[in-house]
Specification:
about 300 residues, about 40% helix, about 15% strand, Rossmann fold, single chain, alpha/beta
């Protein structure tokens, strides 16, 4: 009788472990294989599919950046100010360049060139998402490809914010970084996203992020971090190392990335500025009319210093 009970408990324990491992693998796959935002998906939602379909249509060149063995999709738009900077726009997790082009009308007036790209595992690009572990090297490769002798302004949103800050620290060509809805550490938005999906988080997310880190760079760390202020993946720490100006936008109603993270990141940068967007969420900064007005005004003011002949 005792042996039967012990055997049953053992089977239940094995089943529980296998179920936990399945949840960890599924969570890691969800984070590294986000829904792709492509031309077709944008058109299906009644949105602009590329720069030529905007209310103010813009011709563009589509080309591919080969980086770390992956083909990354790029849209390249000629700006109206030949003496202005080159702007590179980096989207967030589960987004893509089709969503980033909302920024084009304000950028194209002040810049000599505006470049949009799909990070790995997003949009039309190959590879898989590594939550910012490898994406910084891809952005650095893009900077080298398009920067030339012009100043470079990096514009990032959410996950793209951290990638832009990291690249700004490592590249001397970057003269300004503008970010929207950033976060200090990946577990924060990842936990909120999985919670929104109704997926388990406790005891699952940490190991899943560790798996992502190991798969991406062969280390247990990567995005699986405790709130260690000195950890190199901490975007607040990276912001403190930026030598160029940093402009941080954050909506006061963002349910995914807490506004406190945005404030901390801006405060850490020696030349940081923080703009709170009333009524702004994680997704509506360029959709809601009042939010968009703030974004356009502050973007234009920030870039104007680098747009003068």
């Amino acid at each position: 009788m005792v042996e039967s009970a012990l055997g049953l408990l053992l089977l239940l324990a094995i089943g529980a472990v296998l179920y936990w491992l399945m949840l960890v693998v599924l969570t890691a796959r969800t984070l590294t294989h986000p829904p792709r935002q492509t031309y077709a998906s944008a058109v299906a939602r009644g949105q602009f599919g590329d720069p030529s379909e905007l209310d103010d249509p813009r011709e563009f060149e589509a080309w591919t950046l080969r980086s770390q063995g992956r083909d990354l999709s790029v849209w390249d738009v000629v700006g109206e100010n030949a003496d202005g900077p080159v702007a590179i726009v980096t989207h967030g997790w589960a987004s893509g360049k089709v969503n980033s082009i909302r920024r084009l009308p304000v950028l194209v007036r002040l810049c000599s060139r505006v470049v949009f790209w799909d990070m790995p595992g997003h949009g039309e690009s190959g590879g898989r998402c590594t939550l910012g572990v490898q994406e910084t090297d891809d952005l650095l490769a893009l900077i080298e490809r398009v920067g030339g002798d012009k100043p470079v302004v990096l514009c990032g949103s959410s996950m793209g914010s951290g990638v832009s800050i990291s690249a700004g620290v490592r590249s001397d060509k970057v003269t300004q970084v503008i970010v929207e809805a950033p976060y200090r550490l990946p577990p924060t938005p990842a936990a909120n996203v999985m919670d929104f999906k109704g997926a388990p988080v406790r005891f699952v997310l940490g190991p899943a992020l560790a798996y992502v880190g190991i798969a991406a760079c062969g280390r247990w760390t990567g995005p699986n971090l405790t709130p260690d202020k000195d950890h190199p993946f901490n975007r607040e720490v990276l912001a403190s190392r930026l030598r160029c100006p940093l402009l941080v936008f954050h909506g006061d109603a963002d349910p995914t990335c807490p506004i406190e993270d945005g404030r901390a990141i801006a405060r850490a940068c020696p030349r940081g500025t923080f703009v709170e967007v009333p009524g702004g969420t994680h997704q509506n900064l360029w959709k809601h009319e009042a939010c968009r007005a703030i974004m356009e005004r502050e973007y234009a003011n920030a870039i104007a210093a680098f747009a003068k002949p």
